[in-house]
């Protein structure tokens, strides 16, 4: 199970050489080593839906695994390159399973990511450690979110499931429901039950932000038996609770 990566897009953009070394070259070398030394072992790779990039702007509905990879950022490009490399090695006999997980969040996530950032700021406001103002990026963007616990279950299923030999071994993990960032923030504020002002922070705006991401996970359902079990509202409740527990020292 390969999870290691420079996973924060802003960090990959700040140091693209490191991102290529970690997110692509290390994966390529790992794939070659597994193919040479343990070709029957299953290698599960945590890729990213960001690899689809510009395709989100041209596909009318949800993207599936056959949609072109058109990455727009250094992070997305490195993940797409690793995805393609492992796909080629699969043709050579590597038992690689590649995932393109859509935005995932949940309790314990770093506040570097949008939902966890909202939760952390709201928890600070509830605790009286921060004025009742939350700083945000683009609230009009729509994202297909799935709970991290459902994503990890998908990874586990890949390790436990013997795929059909004709399977391409690549899967989207998505809820199939795009949600606006604004609606997510409003739901978190409603859960918290506090009055909060909202301010735009230019530093949180991404230049190559696509308006909407939307994933088709039918292949994962068919071949792995995977479906997202956790309701997104529960994900938000748990994420906010986790952020509050961290502030109170209960984690």
Automatic annotation (TrEMBL):
Domain named NAD(P)-binding: residues: 1-236
Annotated Gene3D superfamilies: NAD(P)-binding Rossmann-like Domain, UDP-galactose 4-epimerase, domain 1
Superkingdom classification of source: Bacteria
One Pfam family it belongs to: GDP_Man_Dehyd
InterPro entries named among the record's database cross-references: NAD(P)-bd_dom (IPR016040), NAD(P)-bd_dom_sf (IPR036291)
Protein name: Putative GDP-6-deoxy-D-lyxo-4-hexulose reductase
Organism listed in the record: Hyphomonas hirschiana VP5
